[in-house]
Amino acid sequence: RRLLVRVLAFSGDLEGAKREVSELERRLPNDPIPWLELGHAFELTHRYDEALAAYDSAASVAPTIPAGSREGGMRAARWGEPEEALPRLEEAVRRGAHDAELFHALGLVRLHMKDLDGASEAYEKGLLADPRSTENMLGLATVAVVLGDPKAALAAYDRILERTPAYAGAELGRAWALAKLGRKDDAKRALARAEALGARRENVARQRADMK
């Protein structure tokens, strides 16, 4: 039935999807699932404000479960609405959500809102949830770059490259950090590796010019 809600919404039958959601609500009282599915149905029909309201309803009917707050926060973050995303993501954390994807989204939202300490905290928690989370490592590197801290940026980029040696963007960031630390020869080698791995030519050219 949950799948049917999405199929109906995808095919343009939003009223049919709503009827299936009502049946879900009858079968699952005080459960966030019907409201989550209603939110997905609204998203599929590009009615984003109504989708967010449905996710908020999912949070309200189950006030101890993070699913509604998490879904609303994640969606708002993806839609580029950090002010809407922040309170929902933080509420999901208060309710017990602790996955790496959530913390990455929270870090990105806080970074966008210039809360650098809060962003770092979120990314660190994301790495505690999943030490292999490249996205959270990259978040820490980004915070370090914004702060103008090449030593911290280099440490973060090195961690990323230990896990994904062919990550051109991390090698490019590593070249920036090495140059800022005065290690020009190492920076040139890192830049050459970034270029070989497929880093964007204009970014490579800009850094190469800065090193002259």
Percentage of residues in DSSP E strands: under 5%
Question: In one word, what is the shape?
Answer: elongated
The beta-strand count equals 0
Order of helices and strands: HHHHHHHHHHHHH
Mean pLDDT comes to 94
Structural class: mainly alpha
Tally of alpha and pi helices: 13
First-to-last CA distance = 63 Å
Helix fraction, binned, reads over 70%
- How big is the Rg? 21 Å
Task: Note the main sheet.
Answer: none
Low-confidence stretches: none
Give an overview in words:
This protein is mostly helical and 212 residues long. Helices cover 78% and strands 0% of the residues. It has 13 helices and no strands.
Observed structural traits:
mainly alpha, single chain, 13 helices, 212 residues, 0% strand
List the helices and strands and how they pair.
Elements: H1 2-10, H2 14-27, H3 33-44, H4 48-61, H5 67-78, H6 82-94, H7 100-112, H8 116-129, H9 134-147, H10 150-163, H11 168-180, H12 184-196, H13 201-211
Helix pairs in contact: 1-2, 1-3, 2-3, 3-4, 4-5, 5-6, 5-7, 6-7, 7-8, 7-9, 8-9, 9-10, 10-11, 11-12, 11-13, 12-13
Write a compact overview of the structure shown.
The chain is mainly α and 212 residues long.
